[in-house]
Amino acid sequence: MKALQHAAFGILALPASGLGVHAYADPAVAPDKTRPEQALVSAPTQDFIADAPGTYALPAIEPAGNGWVLEDNYWPRRLSNYTYDAVTLLSFIYTYCIDPIGCPLAYATMADLRSRVLADTSLRGKVRFVSLSFDPTNDTPEAMHSYGSDYADSTALPWHFLTTYSTHFLLPILDSYGQDVAVELDTAGRPTRTRTHMLKLFLIDPHSEVREIYSAAFLLPEVMYNDIKTLAMESDTPLAATSKQIANP
Amino acid sequence: MKLHTSYSISIAVAALLCVPSAVNTAQADETCNSPYMSGLIKGQEQFLHVWTLGVKGMGDGSDKLVTIDVDPKTKDFGKVINTLSVGGRGESHHMGFTDNRKYLWAGRLDDSKIFVFDVGTNPAKPTLVKTITDFTSKTGFVGPHTFYALPGRILVQGLSNSNNHDGVTGIALYNNKGDYITDYKMPVGDKAIGGGDGYGYDIGINPSKNVMLTSSFTGWTNYMMDLGTLITDANAMKNFGNTMVIWSVKSMKPIKVLNVPGAPLEIRWNLKPGHNWAVTATALTSKLWLIKQDANGEWQAKDVASIGDPSKVPLPVDISITADGKGLWVNTFMDGMTRYFDMTDPEHPVQTYGMHTGKQVNMVSQSWDGKRLYVTSSLLANWDKKASDDEQFLKGYDWDGKKLTQVFDVDFYKLNLGRAHHMKFSAKAKETASLDNEAAMGIADAGP
């Protein structure tokens, strides 16, 4: 976890055991922790000067999806509570993902952005991050909190690590965001714990409208930071809902 | 709940995650599509979908999506395995995948309808899941031509407008659900950026440069006119695009208008990382143009080669760049030639091979590995040749680096299908289980 917090964006060095913070529900499918580090992967290239914040508009792509989620405990909460009244960056992840261009890349990008946002006093109280698990079976509320570590406890920039009670509750959320995911099979045709998914991060405005979607090719922190600022500039009022405490339904 | 293998997640999704280089933004689908699309088929494509123009009195007379098995290991290799009629004839033209490669959007230039096919669930048997009919009412544009995937949404380049049916048009943006989001007008006479004729045709994006490049063709009045009539109408012949436009992808604002006379059509960026140039072919002047930055970082367009004998107007139509950017296939409609240009020096392309592949040829698509090439015949219903010259086909070729060898020929008229136009590849997805099948395997959920 700490290693990731300090990972430089651009070149990621990821431990083979995912983020190194999480126990597997099914040890039989856990990765081999004796392996050396995963291959290094370059981040997308930004060979241009990013458009300045506020000089462009981000159209409303679609309403943010909704559904029942869990945070820290098993009290059901509405996802919509986490996607309104602040500029929200939402990612779908699972804690033991080791695909270097999947969840770890998303995580590292968000960690980079977190530093940028925290350094910008004009964004104070206007931004939150949300990471929602693809795998409610393994990623319990406790596991997600552990995965989030210091970020999950920080109030400087709220970062909510969510899961769902079951796939029954997860699937409608994924559907609403158009987030593809499937379960890989082993050689015998049995499901493994590995998810295949197209990496996407969603930037949501305070009115719960998706205003930008980032795939791997778009994970450019400077551009994403400018997008966050652009949305924040649309509404300059600090928003209470960005506090760590999300109201129950 | 029964465990089933699912093709509902496209092969692309699986492939994306298995290919670390997918994060490198200079990739695209089989060399010709949006770099934001997942699911690059680097191996053997299995199916080829042809967006086909219906012909009155031929079969059901309807526009249709025709699926051909192109896997040489199968018994149906080179055969039509499915047809899906959409009803009516509206000048079927181009198609494009959504970012997850599950859906294929296909447009009609006459009635401006957009058909959304599910090709992810079972690519051997696509289904029509949505018909979008608000392209013109929402935007004023006519003729949805290029479909270019962005994450969660798709750009749709128009060719014309409903006001006077000339070539002034724009780009619509839809989300993946098929809902209109917004639109962007092509620049017209904007002196600050070099003018602009307002025309549109193709879209190509270079993510690492935040650059979108567009090209220009002609409006509804011209593309729906009989070609023989058109070329004798001096005034009509003035109504073709002569520009390309550099845009900021982020802001979707035009940055610079490039002068590229003679209807620049398809745009292909070199896919090799760091090689930030694009190429296009001009239909009327039969030239290859190179678009790249100069020493000062300014985008410039440069005429770098002739295609055939421009004085004979061979009419270059489609182009297909190799994955390494070192070669370019060019189809010329009038003389039925498929030509290969060595692009090792993009400032000086050289034709090194040519083959007469039909009496009329239009689209050309190559596999990612460059070993297979596919050619179709139809340009536009009213521009296709007449009588015995009006061949309609899909032909498959093997390319060994020196010559093309035909491996199959599907006669679209003989099969009562219609006019064969745009092609897209697909393949069965890697076998996966859907999330809701986990419970069936006895794996507990997260309950306390």
Task: Give a brief description.
The complex is a heterodimer of chains A (249) and B (448). With 249 residues, chain A is of the alpha+beta class.
Poorly predicted spans of chain B: 1-29, 440-448
Number of helices of chain A: 5
What's the quaternary structure here? heterodimer
Shape of chain B: globular
- Share of residues in strands of chain B: 35-45%
Low-confidence stretches of chain A: 1-41, 237-243
Extended strand count of chain A: 12
Count the strands of chain B? 34
Rg of Cα set of chain A = 17 Å
Structural class of chain B: mainly beta
Mean pLDDT of chain B: 90
Which sequence of SSEs, written as H and E, runs from N to C of chain A? HEEEEEEHEHEHEEEEH
User: Whole-Å distance between the termini of chain A?
Assistant: 31 Å
Q: If you compute it from the alpha carbons, what radius of gyration of chain B comes out, rounded to the nearest whole angstrom?
A: 21 Å
Main pleated sheet of chain B: 4 strands, antiparallel
Q: Numbering strands along the chain, what is their spatial order in the largest sheet of chain B?
A: 4-3-2-33
State the major sheet of chain A. Answer: 6 strands, mixed
Estimate what percentage of residues of chain A fall within beta strands: 15-25%
